[in-house]
Amino acid sequence: MDLSLLPVDFLNRLRTIIPKVYQEKVFFSFFRKRPTTLRVNSLKIDEERLEHIFKEEGLSVQKYRSIPGAFILIGNSQLKHLTALQSYRDGYFYVQSLSSMLPPLILDPNLGESILDMTAAPGSKTTQMAALMKNSGEITALDNNQVRIYKLLAILEGQGAKNTKVIRTDGRFYWRDHREAFDKVLLDAPCSGEGRINVEDKESFSNWSVKNVERMHFLQKSLIFSAVNCLRIGGALVYSTCTLSPEENEMVIEFALTKFKSHLVVEGIDFHLTNFSPAISSYKGIKFDPQIKKAVRIFPDDKFEGFFICKLRKIS
Questions:
Q1: Is 191 a catalytic residue?
Q2: How far is 292 from 280, CA to CA, in rounded Å?
Q3: Could you give the CA distance from residue 174 to residue 43 in angstroms, rounded to a whole number?
Q4: 69-99 as b/e: b if 16+ CB within 10 A
Q5: pLDDT tens profile 116-166
């Protein structure tokens, strides 16, 4: 494990963010390849039938029982084997990381609800929510990049998600014409991606810098401001990132709680995994609102990408 392959500033920051008990496991995760994981598309098939098809196609998978509909690719099978399958082309499953499956489950979109997916492309969480809602209600999926929009539309069609309206727009300003228009909002925010870094993939950290972390922080604050304004009173908002920086996680939630004061609260997360850790309570001398401890951090390991997830409720 040659840590010199990673940026020095990045490692030094992690030593102040991550409790010592987790540090060795986290650092080791940057040097190992996680197994490919996938999610059954319940709009088209059930888990048992998909397992049977995998067996017929000679593919070895194992259910990850802690997450509904999740499978792990095992043995010598590789991602290219998956994408060559007819069941893949038929949209029976979606290749997705385990951590990425959690925010929609925690948001828990119900039948008939109006959902806003603020940064939707390429569509992993959008299609997951469509399946959870059994194609009822309506999902409004935003993205401001035309190429990503095309990919999102293709994935929605392939997965059979029919309750989703796609709009090309900048989510930071969507609130101006859509105040309190949605029952629930998912903000899986653009981030510095620290939870996905792997030394074998230099692109995963080639653009990392403290300056980029700070740039993301300001973008995320604008997005969460818009998200809260788009949310109806009584509605839920899930904010998530695949990064480890407090600037992009706890400090964004601190901003929202301060900006909206008595109108917003952090809720405990009903969905539990053994690798959930509480959000940190302070950073660089800044003490966060005690509610933020209800948010969860997932430190990267042999199966999970690093993630941060917080559930907020608009109470007035």
A1: no
A2: 8
A3: 29
A4: bbbbbeeebeeebbeebebbeebbbbebbbb
A5: 999 999 999 999 999 999 999 999 999 999 999 999 999 999 999 999 999
| Six-digit token string for 221 | 């604050």
pLDDT tens per residue across span 59-85: 889 999 999 999 999 876 677 888 889
Report the b/e string of 145-166 with b at 16+ CB within 10 A: eeebbeebeebbebbbbebbeb
pLDDT recorded at residue 80: 80
Q: What distance lies between CA 205 and its chain's CA centroid?
A: 19
- 3-state SS of the chain? CCHHHCCHHHHHHHHHHCCHHHHHHHHHHCCCCCCCEEEECCCCCCHHHHHHHHHHCCCCEEECCCCCCEEEECCCCCHHHHHCCHHHHCCCEEECCCHHHHHHHHHCCCCCCEEEECCCCCCHHHHHHHHHCCCCCEEEEEECCHHHHHHHHHHHHHHCCCCEEEEECCHHHHHHHCCCCEEEEEEECCCCCHHHCECCEHHHCCCCCHHHHHHHHHHHHHHHHHHHHHEEEEEEEEEEECCCCHHHCHHHHHHHHHHHHHHEEEECCCCCCCCEEECCCEECCEECCHHHHHCEEECCCCCCCCEEEEEEEECC
Of 179, 303, 193, nearest to 249 (Cα)? 193
**Residue 263 CB burial class (10 angstroms; 0-12, 13-18, ≥19):** middle
Compute the average pLDDT of residues 192-219: 96
At residue 155, φ and ψ (nearest 5 deg) are -70, -40
Q: What is the pLDDT of residue 153?
A: 98
